[in-house]
Design goal:
- By secondary structure, this protein is of the alpha+beta class.
- Among the domains are: about 15-50, no CATH class; about 60-95, no CATH class.
- It contains one helix and four strands, in the order E-E-H-E-E.
- The chain is elongated, with a radius of gyration of 30 Å.
- The protein starts with 15 loop residues before the first strand and ends in a 28-residue tail after the last strand.
Protein backbone atom coordinates (compact mmCIF):
# COMPACT_ATOMS: atom_id res chain seq x y z
CA UNK A 1 0.00 0.00 0.00
CA UNK A 2 1.06 3.49 -0.69
CA UNK A 3 1.36 6.05 2.11
CA UNK A 4 1.19 9.08 -0.17
CA UNK A 5 -1.24 11.80 0.69
CA UNK A 6 -3.58 13.13 -1.97
CA UNK A 7 -2.43 16.21 -3.84
CA UNK A 8 -4.72 19.23 -3.88
CA UNK A 9 -5.50 20.05 -7.46
CA UNK A 10 -7.44 23.24 -6.78
CA UNK A 11 -6.32 26.14 -4.60
CA UNK A 12 -8.84 27.39 -2.09
CA UNK A 13 -9.47 31.12 -2.20
CA UNK A 14 -8.00 32.97 0.75
CA UNK A 15 -10.47 35.09 2.66
CA UNK A 16 -10.24 38.83 2.25
CA UNK A 17 -9.11 41.00 5.11
CA UNK A 18 -11.59 43.32 6.76
CA UNK A 19 -10.48 46.92 6.09
CA UNK A 20 -11.79 48.04 9.50
CA UNK A 21 -10.26 45.49 11.89
CA UNK A 22 -7.70 43.75 9.63
CA UNK A 23 -8.90 40.21 10.41
CA UNK A 24 -10.02 37.57 7.91
CA UNK A 25 -13.58 38.13 6.76
CA UNK A 26 -15.78 35.53 5.09
CA UNK A 27 -18.62 37.90 4.26
CA UNK A 28 -19.51 38.70 0.67
CA UNK A 29 -18.29 42.30 0.63
CA UNK A 30 -15.16 41.59 2.70
CA UNK A 31 -16.15 43.57 5.80
CA UNK A 32 -17.60 42.12 9.01
CA UNK A 33 -21.20 43.28 9.62
CA UNK A 34 -20.34 44.58 13.09
CA UNK A 35 -17.30 46.44 11.71
CA UNK A 36 -19.33 48.11 8.97
CA UNK A 37 -22.01 49.13 11.51
CA UNK A 38 -19.37 50.58 13.84
CA UNK A 39 -17.77 52.48 10.96
CA UNK A 40 -21.15 53.87 9.83
CA UNK A 41 -21.98 54.93 13.40
CA UNK A 42 -18.64 56.71 13.73
CA UNK A 43 -19.13 58.57 10.44
CA UNK A 44 -22.72 59.54 11.32
CA UNK A 45 -21.68 60.74 14.79
CA UNK A 46 -18.88 62.85 13.28
CA UNK A 47 -21.29 64.38 10.74
CA UNK A 48 -23.82 65.23 13.49
CA UNK A 49 -21.10 66.74 15.66
CA UNK A 50 -19.77 68.84 12.75
CA UNK A 51 -23.28 70.10 12.01
CA UNK A 52 -23.79 70.98 15.68
CA UNK A 53 -26.80 68.68 16.05
CA UNK A 54 -25.41 66.39 18.71
CA UNK A 55 -24.90 67.76 22.19
CA UNK A 56 -22.34 66.07 24.37
CA UNK A 57 -23.86 65.07 27.68
CA UNK A 58 -21.73 64.65 30.73
CA UNK A 59 -21.91 61.09 32.02
CA UNK A 60 -24.11 60.67 35.05
CA UNK A 61 -22.21 59.66 38.13
CA UNK A 62 -23.55 56.60 39.83
CA UNK A 63 -24.86 57.04 43.32
CA UNK A 64 -25.77 60.66 42.72
CA UNK A 65 -28.94 62.59 41.99
CA UNK A 66 -29.65 66.01 40.53
CA UNK A 67 -31.10 68.74 42.72
CA UNK A 68 -34.23 70.12 41.01
CA UNK A 69 -33.63 73.57 42.48
CA UNK A 70 -29.94 74.25 41.68
CA UNK A 71 -29.29 71.38 39.16
CA UNK A 72 -26.15 70.20 41.00
CA UNK A 73 -25.25 66.52 41.29
CA UNK A 74 -25.19 65.52 44.95
CA UNK A 75 -24.67 62.15 46.65
CA UNK A 76 -27.79 60.00 46.54
CA UNK A 77 -28.03 59.57 50.30
CA UNK A 78 -28.10 63.29 51.10
CA UNK A 79 -31.50 64.55 52.16
CA UNK A 80 -30.81 68.32 52.08
CA UNK A 81 -28.89 70.08 49.29
CA UNK A 82 -26.52 72.99 49.92
CA UNK A 83 -29.04 75.32 48.25
CA UNK A 84 -31.65 74.38 50.86
CA UNK A 85 -33.81 71.98 48.83
CA UNK A 86 -35.10 69.10 50.95
CA UNK A 87 -35.67 65.79 49.19
CA UNK A 88 -38.59 63.61 50.19
CA UNK A 89 -37.30 61.06 52.65
CA UNK A 90 -38.84 57.61 52.57
CA UNK A 91 -38.05 55.69 55.76
CA UNK A 92 -36.63 52.23 55.21
CA UNK A 93 -35.89 49.34 57.46
CA UNK A 94 -37.82 46.73 59.43
CA UNK A 95 -40.04 49.22 61.31
CA UNK A 96 -40.83 51.44 58.31
CA UNK A 97 -44.40 51.57 57.02
CA UNK A 98 -45.07 50.05 53.60
CA UNK A 99 -45.93 52.78 51.11
CA UNK A 100 -47.80 51.90 47.93
CA UNK A 101 -47.69 54.42 45.09
CA UNK A 102 -50.77 54.82 42.94
CA UNK A 103 -50.25 56.32 39.50
Amino acid sequence: MSEKKPVVTRELPTPGLCPVCGKASYSRNGTHPQCSAAKADTLARAARKAAGIETVKTPRKSWSKPCPKCKRQIPARRIVCDCGHTFAHVPTGPGAPIVHRVH
